[in-house]
Design a protein that fits this description.
By secondary structure, the protein is mainly beta. Helix content is 5%, strand content 41%. The chain has one helix spanning 30-36; strands at 2-6, 12-17, 24-27, 40-46, 50-54, 57-63, 66-71, 77-82, 87-91, 103-107.
């Protein structure tokens, strides 16, 4: 499966490939909420399977464990990765539609915003990190 996407102004474009559709996880942690203004939906890819074309990509060390990639021109948030990780989480809101992907889980629901009413979508909910995801977000 090949997915493409980018930021609002086009200063960052990405292409990600995976053998099977990656699960999409909604992250409700405070860091994601504060950096984007809402919870995020992300899919994780091996860094070797992601190509980034950019003229304005910037990285911010958002915690000792990880960093966030965003466009320095339009401010669009695109990526998160752990400092000791060989995978990249891509915010699926930046993907070109249609993706054909479906939400697989909600994580960090214990720290979600008080106004964030998660719909009864039947997907598993985890108070902290979803199994198989990186820590430190």
């Amino acid at each position: 499966m090949i997915l493409t996407g980018g930021c609002l102004c086009g200063g960052v474009r990405w292409r990600a490939e995976s053998a099977a559709p990656p699960p999409v996880v909604a992250c409700h942690c405070e860091d994601c909420r504060r950096s984007t203004g809402n919870h995020v939906a992300c899919a994780t890819f091996d860094t070797k399977d992601v190509r980034i074309e950019e003229t304005s990509l910037r990285w911010h060390a958002s915690s000792p464990e990880g960093r966030r990639g965003f466009c320095g021109t339009c401010g669009g948030n695109l990526f998160w990765t752990a400092t000791d990780w060989d995978r990249l989480e891509i915010w699926m809101g930046t993907a070109d539609m249609p993706t054909g992907l479906r939400l697989a889980a909600h994580e960090f629901v214990a720290g979600k915003a008080d106004w964030d009413a998660i719909p009864p979508d039947g997907q598993p909910r985890f108070d902290s990190i979803a199994p198989g995801e990186a820590s430190g977000r």
